[in-house]
């Protein structure tokens, strides 16, 4: 058994697992009832699925330049996707699009009531 065969098997497993996680994220976006649940489904498994696919690509290509660029893609995806979804969630909460009865913990209502911010877009 050679190193290239092992790397190809690891790449295949990463591709399949990443694709499955992306499929689960898509099903979650379609099936979950409210905005915050859908955003959670769109962020968590999608980012992990993309990371696994890019790890599979790195094992398949085996070139240091490509692995470096793929690492940057993973880093940027890890920093931008959760922050963007957090900001969308806060904006939708301020706009009144979040069902308060579905929340278990609501720490944002008291913060917003203290600051007297306008609802909706500025």
TrEMBL record:
Keywords, comma-separated and alphabetical: Membrane, Transmembrane, Transmembrane helix
NCBIfam families cross-referenced by the UniProt entry: CPA3_mnhG_phaG (TIGR01300), PRK12674.1-2 (NF009314)
Pfam families attached to this UniProt entry: PhaG_MnhG_YufB
GO molecular function: sodium:proton antiporter activity
Bilayer-crossing regions: 6-30, 42-61, 67-84
Domain of life: Bacteria
Keyword Ribonucleoprotein in annotation: no
Family, as annotated: Belongs to the CPA3 antiporters (TC 2.A.63) subunit G family.
InterPro entries tied to this protein: PhaG_MnhG_YufB (IPR005133)
Protein's name according to its UniProt entry: Multicomponent Na+:H+ antiporter subunit G
């Amino acid at each position: 058994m050679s190193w290239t065969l092992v790397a190809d098997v690891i790449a295949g497993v990463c591709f399949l697992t990443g694709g499955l996680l992306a499929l689960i994220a898509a099903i979650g976006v379609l099936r979950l009832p409210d905005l915050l649940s859908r955003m959670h489904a769109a962020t968590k498994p999608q980012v992990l699925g993309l990371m696994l696919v890019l790890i599979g690509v790195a094992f398949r290509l085996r070139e240091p330049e490509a692995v470096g660029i793929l690492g940057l893609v993973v880093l940027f995806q890890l920093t931008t996707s959760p922050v963007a979804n957090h900001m969308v969630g806060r904006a939708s909460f301020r706009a009144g699009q979040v069902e308060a009865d579905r929340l278990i913990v609501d720490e944002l209502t008291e913060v917003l009531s203290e600051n007297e911010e306008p609802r909706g877009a500025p």
